TrEMBL record:
Top-rank taxon, per record: Bacteria
InterPro entries for the chain: MFS, MFS_dom, MFS_trans_sf
Membrane topology recorded in Swiss-Prot or TrEMBL: Multi-pass membrane protein
Entry's transmembrane regions: 40-60, 80-99, 115-134, 140-161, 173-195, 201-226, 254-279, 291-312, 324-342, 348-374, 386-409, 415-436
UniProtKB keywords: Membrane, Transmembrane, Transmembrane helix
PANTHER family listed in its UniProt record: MAJOR FACILITATOR SUPERFAMILY (MFS) PROFILE DOMAIN-CONTAINING PROTEIN (PTHR23528:SF1), PTHR23528
Protein known as: MFS transporter
Localization per record: Cell membrane
Domain (Major facilitator superfamily (MFS) profile): residue spans on this chain: 41-440
Length: 440
C-alpha cells in the first residue's frame, strides 16, 4: 500500500525493527526520505531479500547446472557459461535503466511497488519457461526472462535501503538480509536435491515460486513513497548517463563499486561451477552431486551467517567498514587456496566453509558501504542500479573469462585455473577499498 504520511497501527510482538532500534545521537543526521513504515517492514524487507536469493541464485546455481548435467554432460560447462553470459548482458543493460525509471515512477501505488509487483510476475513467467525447457536456446530464453523480471524487483528492493532504512542500522539490516540470502542458498540447494531426478519442472517451480511469494509480501506491506512532482522529460543523454557515474568526481563510489565487482567475481567463479567441480574433480556421481552440494552449502552458510551478524554488529558499533573488507578478502583467499589444493572432499569442504565465513564478513558491510558513498539520495534508484550492476556484471564477465580458463591444458575442464582467478579477484577486491576517503 502507498501511504506517504501515516504508519499502520502497532501491534505487540517484537519485530526486527525493535531489535535494531537505537537512539539517534543528533536529530536530523540520520533521516531517510521514506514514509513511516508498518511494524513488520524490516522483517518483510529481509524476507524479500531471502526470496530473491532463493529464486535467482538457486536457479543459476543449482537448477540450471543440474539440467545441463543430465542433458549434456560433456558440454555442461560451456552451456552454463553461455547461459550465464547472455543473462549477464541482459542484467547489465536493464539494471541501471530500471533504477532510473523507478526513481521517476509516479504511480499511485508508489515508485518502488510497481517494479516489485510486475518484476516478480515476469520472473515467474521465466521460471515456467525454464521448467519445461530441454534445448539450450530455450534455457537461455527462460533465464533472460527471469533475469529481466527479478532484476526489476531487485533494483526496487535495493533502492528501499536508501529510501526507508536509517544509516545507523543500515549495516545490521544489510547483515540480516545477507544472512537471509545465505539461508536461501541452503534452502534452494536442499529443495533441488530433494526433488525427483526425473521431474525437471520441480527443480525450477518449487524454489522459484516459493521465493516469489516473499516479494509479493513486501509489495503488500510497504508504505511506498508516492512521487507527485513530475520529473523532467527523459532525454537520450539521460538514458546514457544512467550507465555512468564520473569515477573522478565520485571517486569513493568508484572504488567501492570496483571492490564489490571484484569480490563478487571471486564468489561467482566458485559458486557458479561448484556442482561441476563436485562431479568432475571430486568424482561424485551426478545423481548424488546435488545432495553433496547442498551439504557443502549448509556448512558454507553457517559460517557465512555467523560472521555476517558478528561483523554487522561490530561495524555499526565502531563505524568502520574498510578493515572488515580487507580482512574478508584475505580470509577468502586462504579458503580458496585450501579448496584448490584439497586432496579429498573433506579438505575441500573445509576450504569452502572458510570462504563462506569470509563472504559473511564482507556482506555484513557491503551494502551499507555502497549506500554511504552514493552521490545523492534523490537518484538512489538509478545510483543503486549501478551498484546492483557490480553484483550482476560478474554473471557476464565470469563465464566469458571461464571459457578460455576451463580450456587450458585440453582434456577435462580446468577448474584449478578458475579457482586461481577467483583468488586474484578476491584479493584485488579487498585492496580496492583502501583509496576510499569518506568511509572509515
Amino acid at each position: 500500500m502507498s501511504h506517504p504520511l501515516e504508519p499502520e497501527p502497532l501491534g505487540t510482538a517484537p519485530t526486527l525493527e525493535e531489535m535494531l532500534a537505537e537512539p539517534v545521537a543528533a536529530a536530523g543526521i540520520d533521516e531517510v526520505p521514506g514514509s513511516p513504515q508498518p511494524r513488520a517492514f524490516l522483517t518483510l524487507y529481509v524476507l524479500a531479500w531471502f526470496g530473491l536469493t532463493l529464486s535467482i541464485n538457486t536457479i543459476i546455481g543449482s537448477s540450471i547446472p543440474k539440467l545441463f548435467a543430465f542433458t549434456d554432460d560433456h558440454g555442461k560447462g560451456i552451456d552454463l557459461s553461455v547461459t550465464a553470459a547472455i543473462g549477464g548482458i541482459v542484467v547489465m543493460v536493464i539494471t541501471p535503466l530500471f533504477g532510473r525509471l523507478s526513481d521517476r515512477t509516479m504511480a499511485r501505488m508508489g515508485k518502488r511497488r510497481p517494479w516489485i509487483l510486475w518484476g516478480t510476475i515476469v520472473g515467474c513467467v521465466g521460471i515456467v519457461v525454464l521448467a519445461f525447457s530441454v534445448e539450450l536456446w530455450v534455457v537461455v530464453l527462460g533465464w533472460v526472462i527471469v533475469q529481466a523480471g527479478f532484476g526489476a524487483t531487485n533494483v526496487a528492493v535495493h533502492a528501499l535501503l536508501a529510501d526507508q532504512i536509517a544509516t545507523r542500522i543500515r549495516a545490521r539490516v544489510s547483515a540480516f538480509a545477507s544472512a537471509a540470502g545465505g539461508i536461501a542458498g541452503i534452502v534452494g540447494a536442499v529443495l533441488v536435491a530433494a526433488m525427483p531426478n526425473d521431474k525437471q519442472w520441480t527443480w525450477f517451480i518449487v524454489p522459484g515460486f516459493l521465493g516469489a511469494i516473499f516479494s509479493f509480501l513486501l509489495f503488500f506491506g510497504l508504505h511506498d513513497i508516492v512521487r507527485t512532482d513530475r520529473p523532467a522529460r527523459l532525454r537520450w543523454s539521460d538514458i546514457l548517463s544512467t550507465y555512468w557515474l564520473d569515477p573522478v568526481k565520485y571517486r569513493d563510489f568508484f572504488w567501492a563499486w570496483m571492490c564489490r565487482l571484484l569480490v563478487t567475481m571471486s564468489i561467482v567463479s566458485v559458486a557458479g561451477y561448484l556442482l561441476f567441480f563436485i562431479i568432475d574433480r571430486l568424482g561424485i556421481p551426478k545423481e548424488q552431486a546435488s545432495g553433496v552440494q547442498a551439504g557443502m552449502l549448509i556448512m558454507f552458510t553457517v559460517g557465512n551467517i555467523l560472521m555476517t551478524l558478528l561483523f554487522g554488529w561490530i561495524s555499526d558499533r565502531t563505524g568502520r567498514r574498510k578493515p572488515i573488507v580487507l580482512f574478508s578478502s584475505l580470509l577468502s583467499a586462504v579458503g580458496l587456496v585450501i579448496a584448490l589444493l584439497a586432496p579429498d572432499i573433506t579438505v575441500f569442504t573445509i576450504g569452502i566453509v572458510i570462504v563462506g565465513a569470509a563472504q559473511g564478513a564482507y556482506v555484513s558491510v557491503d551494502v551499507a558501504l555502497m549506500t554511504e558513498v552514493l552521490p545523492t539520495f534523490k537518484d538512489a534508484g538509478k545510483d543503486l542500479g549501478i551498484v546492483s550492476l557490480s553484483f550482476q556484471l560478474p554473471q557476464l564477465l565470469v563465464p566469458l573469462i571461464a571459457l578460455p580458463l576451463l580450456s587450458i591444458g585440453g582434456g577435462t575442464e580446468n577448474y584449478s585455473a578458475l579457482f586461481i582467478a577467483a583468488i586474484v579477484f578476491g584479493v584485488l577486491g579487498g585492496l580496492a577499498v583502501i583509496p576510499i576517503k569518506t568511509v572509515r
